[in-house]
Amino acid sequence: MSDATSFDVIVIGAGPGGYVFAIRAAQLGLKVACVEKRATLGGTCLNVGCIPSKALLHSSEHFEEALHKLADHGVNVGSVSLDLARMQARKDEVVSANVKGVEFLFKKNKITWIKGEARITAPGAVEVAGKSYAAKQIVIATGSSSIDLPGVTVDEKQIVTSTGALELDKVPGHLVVIGGGYIGLELGSVWRRLGAEVTVVEFLDRLVPTMDGETGKMFERVMSKQGIKSKLKTKVTGAKADETGVTLTLEPAAGGEAETLKADVVLVAIGRRANTEGLGLAEVGVALDERGRVITDHFATNIDGIWAIGDVITGPMLAHKAEEEGVALAELLAGQAGHVNYGVIPGVVYTWPEVASIGETEEQLKARGVAYKVGKFPFTANARARAMGDTDGFVKILADATTDRVLGAHIIGPDAGTLIAEIAIAMEFGASSEDIARTCHAHPSLNESVKEAALAVEGRALHI
Ligand SMILES: Cc1cc2nc3c(=O)[nH]c(=O)nc-3n(C[C@H](O)[C@H](O)[C@H](O)COP(=O)(O)OP(=O)(O)OC[C@H]3O[C@@H](n4cnc5c(N)ncnc54)[C@H](O)[C@@H]3O)c2cc1C
Question: What fold, for 3-145+273-340?
Fold first, then answer.
């Protein structure tokens, strides 16, 4: 093997797991190559996930503000119209700047980008486009793809995955979203704001079912107030697309009489599955679990020298979880003590209001039999939220009844995704609710609601 084809480590996939792993490993002095089959770096997250969806969420928020909110602030903008082509072009510019940023970071850290689809031919050996590469260690960071729904054939035009839903060149009259998870609700919000009628069909009895129950109920109310209709406890059994649109066949989840629902565009967002096909895993003997994810123990697979991180292994399918794993594994391979605290990984739904959660829900604490106290504070009582005109929602902090240690927090409200970071740090430091309550928070800020919720744990909130 020449110097150009032999590495300390080859990581397969340049998503937030793979590219962050590559940077950290290079920082620690390892000779790193990253294989990516997509034309650009950054994986699902930067190309067709987190970043384009947030660009469209922001743009559509501005549109809705101009249409419905600015006049209340005394800002009259005259007639407002949508230039969807410009909005989409701006989203593409944001994506392009981000993926080029990763390319720059690869050059800066002297990471070799091998372009093409990788297959592991043996421990320590990877093949890309008919060429062989050697590495002491191999990391699988191949991410995930949208799950198909039987009977519903995706064409990325009328029946789309999230990738197609980010590219629509016309606002659909009626968008039906199959799956009430965060991806469906974020993209449903985008198109609802831009003028579509939106219906979410969900098999279970609630939207984002993993969410803390009380927060989830409020979230459903807010979504419904915004005009997003939901059909819960309903399953989609088929879809027929023609020039007039898509006709979906629905049935009650528990079985019963079928009905039809007509849509212009259908978004299938029922979850994501690990990308393990074509990687040669069966031939090399890498074990997968019942859901097709690579089985790992501290990122090690059952085969020596082969590791895995990110969406392709167990745990929440989130970019920051993949990044944390990338850093931890790079540090482990460089002889350090890499570690991820899975109890403190925030989850955010970037609708407006946003929903953010961390740690355990009330339902989980009850199931574990943990005695806990609840401190809650509504944004209606927060001066900054009132000044902004964004008072929907609350902050809820759950603390251990005996030790007062913060066990979880659930926020629905303006900028919840930013507010949750304060609680993540508190939880990393093993803080009590009193630690947060006794920390000086700037006034007037949304963060004061976090402090007030912490005060409310002991029944001593000041502003309510
Ligand atoms: C619409 C949408 C919105 C999202 N929004 C958020 C959000 O707001 N926040 C959040 O935290 N998460 C979000 N996610 C999830 C997030 O994108 C993923 O959790 C994250 O990208 C996982 O990172 P990863 O590195 O494991 O894999 P990926 O980002 O999927 O990257 C894997 C890469 O591996 C490449 N690859 C696969 N197989 C091979 C092979 N054999 N050879 C070479 N290359 C290969 C793929 O082309 C891909 O680029 C969103 C996802 C979607 C779809």
Answer: FAD/NAD(P)-binding domain (3.50.50)
Q: Does the domain at residues 344-457 carry the CATH identifier 3.90.79.10? A: no
- Three-class SS of residue 307? strand
- Report the pLDDT averaged over residues 223-251: 96
How many A from CA of 188 to the centre of ligand 1? 20
Best CA proximity match to 409, nearest among 351, 343, 339, 462: 343
How far is ligand 1, taken at its centre, from the CA of residue 144, in Å? 6
Q: In what order do the strands lie in the sheet with 234-242?
A: 234-242, 245-252, 259-263
Say yes or no: CB of residue 52 within 6 Å of ligand 1: no
Decide whether any atom of ligand 1 lies within 6 Å of the 184 Cβ.
no
What are the E-state strand segments in 96-212? 112-115, 118-122, 125-128, 131-140, 144-146, 159-160, 174-178, 197-201
Interval 428-434 mean pLDDT: 98
With cut-offs at 50, 70 and 90, classify the pLDDT of residue 61. very high
318 is in an annotated binding site: yes
| 183 in contact with ligand 1, CB cutoff 6 A | yes
What is the rounded distance in angstroms from the CA atom of residue 459 to the CA atom of residue 453?
A: 9
Coil, strand, or helix at residue 277? coil
**Per CATH, is 159-270 categorized as 3.50.50.60?**
yes
**Would you state the pLDDT for residue 2?**
78
Ligand-binding annotation for 54, yes or no, is yes
